[in-house]
Design brief:
The complex is a heterodimer of chains A (664) and B (636).
Chain A: H1 15-19, H2 26-31, E1 37-39, H3 40-46, H4 49-53, H5 70-79, H6 81-94, H7 98-112, H8 118-135, E2 138-142, H9 143-155, E3 158-162, H10 168-179, E4 186-190, H11 197-205, E5 208-211, H12 219-235, E6 240-241, H13 260-270, E7 278-286, H14 292-299, H15 309-314, E8 325-330, E9 334-335, H16 336-340, H17 347-350, H18 362-381, E10 384-385, H19 387-397, E11 401-403, H20 404-420, E12 424-425, H21 433-443, E13 448-451, E14 454-457, H22 467-505, H23 510-523, H24 535-548, E15 552-554, E16 559-561, H25 566-575, H26 577-593, E17 597-598, H27 600-617, H28 628-641, E18 644-647, E19 651-654, H29 658-663
Parallel strand pairs in A: 2-8, 3-6, 3-7, 4-5, 4-6, 10-12
Antiparallel strand pairs in A: 1-2, 7-8, 7-9, 11-14, 13-14, 15-16, 17-19, 18-19
Chain B: H1 18-26, E1 81-83, E2 89-91, E3 102-103, H2 106-114, H3 140-149, E4 152-154, H4 157-162, H5 169-177, E5 186-189, H6 193-206, E6 209-213, E7 233-237, E8 244-248, E9 253-257, H7 262-271, E10 274-275, H8 288-294, H9 301-304, H10 307-310, E11 311-318, E12 321-323, H11 339-342, E13 351-358, E14 360-361, E15 365-373, H12 376-388, E16 395-399, H13 401-409, H14 417-433, E17 442-450, H15 452-468, E18 472-473, H16 476-498, E19 501-511, H17 515-532, E20 540-548, E21 552-562, H18 569-586, H19 605-624
Parallel strand pairs in B: 5-7, 6-7
Antiparallel strand pairs in B: 1-2, 2-3, 4-5, 8-9, 9-13, 10-14, 11-12, 11-13, 15-17, 15-18, 16-17, 16-20, 19-21, 20-21
Helix pairs in contact in B: 1-7, 3-6, 12-15, 17-18
The chains are: A alpha/beta (664), B alpha+beta (636).
Chain lengths: 664, 636
């Protein structure tokens, strides 16, 4: 306990640096009014897709735009001072002729660059109409958000920041912009797509551009890529789109943000090459995620199939399946200028020529990180929660089976609680609870089913077979179900961690509870999304929400659970138990089983075996500890807390873990 | 001290003797100069001016400034924009080329640009209410001592108010509608260096505050009296120290008393066939001492240099004594140049009394020119290239589209059908034939000076470069009108003030690669700030690249808006101007290129020159003026 890294006193929160940033004032949170949704597929079901694909497409454009062809952009990038500078530097350092490096740069550009063609766009419009109509019941969009976006595109360069749960995300977003007659975005997509020959090329022509997943060491690649993105942005040629999360979240839980691309798109503003830049958080929520079972396998360590065109064709099978409704909420465009006002010291940008690569100063890095978290929190805020999400949360707390009526009752109760906590619930067409849940069960019959008036997880094939097989199947079902419960977690995390802290400290003293809360927040910093540095504010928000639903009472010094609050309290703590237990198992593994140094790969397979054995022996019920996501997050948190030290690139060096593990 | 408010004035025809003629137009009204021919020889006797009757002043500007100049606006009493009985705009007086001319399209431009209506007038009070003026508080002992020196002085309210301000918007607004809380208690008119020495000695003895006053054209609140100043404030008006003491033709220098205003200096030098070539826009009124004290810049700096390039020797009276160098040499290596403590000191260290400046023979030939560019970007690229090749003419300026249209609105009624036909043809050629968009194109104005042959050669070189950037030569007349425009614009503010329109100019210097971004962002910022502050009609926000250097350019902004419906327009204006300055700094621009800091821009000094830099300046002030006799509180 003594060596606990959690701060006793609340961290200093400079009022200036965070005044604009506090993402959810408590009052705002409650009175948050959200836009209405429109189904864009409705129109598609009654009118010709071909006519739609051939419609007059004249998107509104940025006011300062001077139109230019993709090839002109490429050569502008290649000839830019920025790229030329790096080419010359590299030539000097390696002794290679600049021409050769220039050619290399050209190749990178070709591999990366988009070449948007209207034909391809129309082709996509047509086929996607067909596909989406087969896959989804409805695609709902907040039209006001689209209008705001249209406005924003004309005013300043726009960066679209959608959540990332599926490959459908960027197809859908482009489709949406086309439908609303907006400029198609250029998308920073992972280069794995290039493996899909025809689709890759088509995507490119529809505006995607590709980046290698990792190019940390390659300066030429970085320079070309950064300049390409910035050129696009400066010209206001088209909205830039990328995923803050970096990759598809396999757990439907928002991943901690990556900063590289974000800092690239912010740079033109820092250097005042543009007056402002709009950042638009977009929340895409799936009633049923296309890749759900794929993800579950992947989390359990069965490698995912490499993206290939034939793989996609095989996926045709899923075309006959029903994936329910998609909700796309286009958030309020956030002005980067407003965010930056008063925060950025302008000196570093004034004293060095703007084309020289410059390592961002500490305050810039901190700012970029703050913005990234803010945008993710805005995404989370507008994520639509379907009834099934609530069902999944209830079900996972009542395994192996729950009475159907009880499930309905608890789901309704949870609905109320979720709304109190600011969750964005879309209840389908005012259906009664029973109908809504039944339809949810129908849609997710692969996950759960109704047996003799009880709802059970659909772990088909788990009854027979070897023990290992049973556990694997069961874990698969739990993880898939968990994917839906996970959508609630970031809404619930603040009050829940207060509850957990309250239970852990066994004290009512606010100070102690806060200290424990703050520690938990650090431990789970990679698991859930917290705005950096506002631990106290998060704590207060958690307390506020708990007070609001009557679960606790607070005085100046103390926090008491109320009698009637015990239901809420036990529900919340049960909701986060898999994470508490999962982390504890991982720490146990590290302190007892692990070697002194290990790689991440060794660590994951080690934990997996360790947990598997415990499950086999029946010593734990925590199937979720098998998930590589939890394992990686826990490791990352330990590194951050200094309990585990990272050495070199491939090696992870174990230092001391005991004090921290003991704490949990 | 005087700061040149605008850079340069120009309205002469493109002929060899235009400089002279232009000046004679500017000052044609004046009584015959007391300058007798042949007096340009050395006149070292220190106080020859002493005892001269107070009546006819030797310079263009009399001691009673209000007799000649507006008490509540810019420039001469007889020169202003008005709307005549037909509702057409007209410029009165005979001093300027525009004088007496009708400007048929101007009214429409005003209405369109500002949403202003001629029906809604906001008139200034007719005259100064002497009862509102703070009383003059002076100790009897000082007054006795002062009288003993025989230095001319005044405690008259009008005299004092006239020296309590420069030409910032809020200052003029206060004259029209309010009053200053603190003004000088007394005005003194020394006529020579020795007089200044005596005044400074008296100030030290009686613990007074001296605020030097030159031409009164400051646009940095530099002349405002600090409200909290409890000591007697003495306004030291240098206007009567206006003689050329000697001209040295061998070394091409002239020693001049610092109170001389630009137009007199050039006129008097011209009589001997010389000029300094220093022509800030305010040169009719601003003084040599003011130029030195603010680091002024002239329109023709490409040939003659800015004030720091022109100055050979400075004599300044400080509370510590007199500071000057021991010789008049082009350059010396004797530690940091003490001139650079003086230039830009903005009246915080002492009074500049005599300056030796470089002079040049009056150029044989002068020619205006102009080039139309398809857009501002091309224009800037062209100016950059001209600067790179170091072939900038005496002046080269690039105005943006809004300013081009503004200049167009100031076109006088054309005399003949033929001229209007020609204009129409030109317009057709540029917009239809060459495909320039009249709402995007921009214009560069040029002024060449020198030997006739060289000018023509130079002209060709510049036009050749312009052609490479898509520029089309657009004639001498457009160029000339461009220069006129920058200088009558100061009169325009007074007209705007009559119709709920307030405006101001401000300037900066910026590296070449940031010129475009800075211009765009600052204009955009102004528009946005206006919107946010509830300004109902989009503001007029325009810029020009007005000087070119090897490493960057000077950019000049005009900004004006219709303030109807706003309760505190000056406050709103100041907030917007401040935001614009923040934007300039964020875009890598300087705090000021030539207007100076004064009190208006003090808040950014630390950021501009670093803590240590500020400390260096402070320590100079502390040594030179430990009791803060020169207490105008500028700069630091």
């Amino acid at each position: 306990r003594a060596s606990s890294p959690s701060p006793r006193t609340p961290p200093p929160v400079s009022p200036l640096s965070h005044s604009l940033f506090v993402y959810s004032q408590q009052k705002e949170l409650m009175s948050k009014k959200r836009d209405e949704f429109e189904d864009i597929l409705e129109e598609r079901r009654v009118s010709s897709d071909l006519r739609y694909a051939m419609k007059c497409y004249a998107p509104v454009i940025y006011k300062g735009l001077s139109p230019c062809k993709p090839n002109a952009i490429k050569s502008a990038v290649l000839q830019s001072e920025q790229v030329q500078y790096v080419i010359k530097q590299l030539a000097k350092e390696t002794g290679e002729s600049p021409d050769i490096i220039q050619e290399e740069a050209m190749e990178i550009l070709d591999e990366m660059g988009h070449s948007m063609q209207l034909g391809a766009v129309r082709f996509f419009a047509f086929t996607l109409s067909k596909i989406f109509k087969r896959l989804f019941q409805r695609v709902c969009v907040n039209e006001e958000g689209m209008q705001r976006l249209q406005q924003a595109i004309q005013e300043h360069p726009v960066v679209l920041l959608p959540s990332h749960r599926s490959y459908i995300d960027f197809l859908m977003l482009s489709y949406l912009l086309y439908t609303y007659d907006l400029a198609l975005p250029v998308i920073a997509a992972g280069i794995d797509f290039l493996g899909m020959k025809i689709v890759g090329e088509l995507l490119r022509r529809a505006g995607a551009f590709f980046m290698r997943r990792s190019f940390g060491g390659n300066r030429l690649y970085w320079a070309v890529f950064a300049e390409y993105v910035k050129t696009m942005l400066r010209n206001g040629y088209a909205p830039i789109e990328f995923f803050l999360e970096g990759t598809r979240s396999r757990t439907a839980k928002t991943l901690t943000p990556k900063f590289g691309l974000l800092s690239i798109v912010m740079e033109p503003f820092f250097k005042r090459e543009v007056f402002d830049t709009y950042l638009v958080p977009i929340s895409i929520s799936y009633e049923r995620i296309l890749e759900e079972s794929l993800y579950a396998y992947e989390l359990l360590g069965v490698p995912k199939p490499k993206e290939s065109t034939s793989g996609l064709l095989k996926a045709r099978r899923i075309l006959s399946d029903n994936f329910g409704t998609i909700h796309i909420y286009v958030g309020q465009p956030v002005s980067l200028r407003t965010l930056a006002s008063g925060r950025i010291n302008r000196c570093p940008y004034n004293l060095v020529p703007r084309h020289l690569p410059q390592k961002p100063s500490d305050d810039i890095q901190e700012f970029v990180s703050d913005v990234a978290y803010k945008m993710e929190l805005l995404q989370i805020e507008n994520m639509v929660l379907r009834p099934w999400v609530l069902v999944a949360a209830v079900l996972l707390q009542n395994l192996p089976a729950v009475d159907f009526e009880l499930l309905i009752e608890k789901t309704l109760w949870l609905k109320g609680l979720t709304q109190t906590f600011g969750g964005f619930i879309e209840w389908p067409d005012n259906l009664c609870a029973k109908k809504a849940i039944t339809s949810g069960l129908a849609l997710h019959s692969n996950i759960a089913r109704l047996v003799d008036g009880h709802v059970v997880l659909n772990d088909k094939g788990a009854e027979d077979g070897a023990v290992g097989e049973i556990i694997f199947k069961r874990a698969l079902a739990v993880l898939m179900c968990g994917t839906y419960r996970n959508q609630l977690l970031n809404v619930f995390v603040r009050p829940s961690l207060v509850v957990v802290a309250l239970q852990m400290t066994r004290s009512f003293r606010k100070e102690e509870v806060y200290s424990c809360f703050s520690f938990l927040r650090d431990v789970f910093s990679d698991e859930f999304i917290f705005f950096p540095g506002i631990s106290l504010k998060d704590f207060e928000e958690g307390c506020f929400l708990l007070t609001k639903c009557g679960a606790i009472q607070t005085t100046q010094q103390e926090i008491y659970p109320t009698d009637k609050g015990s239901v809420v309290i036990s529900f919340l703590s049960a909701m986060f138990r898999p994470f508490m237990e999962g982390y504890q198992l991982i720490f146990r593994y590290l302190s007892k089983e692990a070697k002194e140094t290990f790689t991440e790969k060794q660590f994951i397979s080690g934990v997996r075996n360790f947990v598997f054995q415990l499950l086999e022996k029946g010593n734990t019920q925590c199937y979720e500890a098998l998930s590589s996501d939890i394992q990686k997050n826990a490791l990352a948190a330990l590194v951050q807390l200094g309990a585990v030290k990272k050495k070199k690139i491939p090696c992870v060096d174990l230092l001391e873990i005991k004090p921290v593990a003991a704490r949990l | 001290m005087a700061a040149p408010a605008e850079e340069a004035a120009g309205s002469g025809p493109g002929s060899p003797s235009s400089a002279r003629r232009r000046l004679s137009i500017i000052s044609g009204h004046l009584r015959g100069s007391p300058w007798a021919p042949g007096r340009e020889g050395p006149s070292p006797s220190p106080c020859k001016a002493r005892g001269a009757p107070a009546g006819p002043a030797s310079g263009s500007i009399p001691k009673k400034r209000q007799e000649l100049l507006k008490w509540n606006g810019w420039g001469y009493n007889d020169s202003k924009f008005i709307f005549n009985k037909k509702g057409q705009a007209e410029f009165t007086g005979r001093r300027y080329r525009l004088g007496g001319m009708v400007l048929p399209t101007f009214k429409e431009w005003i209405e369109k640009t500002f949403g202003a209506s001629l029906e809604h007038k906001s008139t200034s009070r007719a005259s100064l209410n002497v009862n509102d003026v703070p009383p003059s508080i002076i100790s009897e002992e000082f007054l006795q001592d002062l009288i003993a020196t025989k230095i001319s002085y005044s405690q008259d309210a009008e005299d004092r108010v006239f020296r309590a301000h420069g030409h910032c918007l809020h200052e003029i607004f206060a004259l029209r509608e309010g009053i200053f809380r603190r003004i000088p208690d007394i005005v003194v008119w020394p006529v020579c260096h020795e007089d200044v020495v005596k005044i400074v000695e008296l100030a030290c003895k009686h613990s007074l505050c001296i605020i030097p006053f030159g031409g009164g054209t400051s646009v940095s609140s530099a002349l405002e009296c600090p409200e909290e100043e409890k000591r007697t404030i003495v306004s030291l008006d240098t206007s009567q120290m206006n003689r050329i003491l000697w001209i040295d033709e061998k070394n091409l220098t002239a020693c001049v008393e610092a109170g001389i205003v630009g137009q007199d200096l050039e006129k008097q030098l011209a009589e001997s066939g010389f000029c300094t070539g220093h022509e800030p826009d305010s040169m009719e009124f601003s003084s040599l001492g003011g130029w030195v004290a603010t680091r002024a810049s002239g329109m023709k700096k490409n040939i003659y240099g800015n004030i720091e390039d022109l100055v050979i020797h400075i004599k300044m009276v400080t509370p510590r004594g007199i500071v000057e160098k021991n010789c008049q040499v082009p350059r010396m290596s004797t530690g940091p140049d003490i001139h650079h403590f003086i230039m830009g000191s903005e009246g915080t260290l002492g009074v500049v009394t005599e300056v030796t400046v470089k002079i040049r023979p009056v150029p044989e030939y002068q020619k205006y020119g102009s080039v139309v560019f398809p857009n501002f970007e091309r224009g800037v690229a062209c100016l950059r290239e001209v600067a790179k090749q170091r072939c900038a003419p005496a002046s080269i300026r690039l105005v943006d589209n809004a300013q081009f249209q503004f200049g167009h609105a100031l076109k006088p009624q054309v005399a003949s059908i033929f001229t209007s036909f020609l204009d129409g043809l030109k317009k057709f050629y540029i917009t239809k034939f060459k495909g320039f968009d009249p709402n995007i194109l921009c214009v560069a104005t040029l002024l060449f000076e020198g030997d006739r042959e060289k000018v023509l050669q130079h002209e060709k070189q510049v036009y050749d470069i312009a052609t490479k950037f898509g520029g089309l030569a657009a004639g001498e007349d457009n160029g000339q009108r461009g220069y006129m425009l920058t200088f009558v614009i100061a009169y325009l503010r007074d007209l705007g003030l009559d119709y709920y329109v307030i405006g101001e100019s401000f300037e900066t210097s910026v590296p070449w690669d940031r010129v475009l971004d800075l211009c765009r962002n600052v204009k955009e910022r102004i528009v946005r700030e206006c919107k946010e502050k509830g300004v109902q009609f989009a503001p007029f926000s325009t810029c020009r690249v007005t000087q070119t250097y090897d490493a960057g350019a000077c950019v000049y902004f005009y900004f004006a808006f219709n303030y109807r419906g706003i309760s505190d327009p000056i406050h709103v204006y100041e907030q917007i101007e401040r935001a614009a300055r923040e934007e300039i700094l964020a875009n890598g621009g300087s705090l000021s290129h030539h207007h100076g800091v004064g009190k208006l821009r003090k808040r950014w000094m630390k950021e501009s020159i670093s803590d240590v830099g500020l400390g260096m300046l402070r320590s100079v002030k502390e040594y030179v003026d430990p009791n803060n006799i020169f207490g105008n509180k500028n700069l630091l």
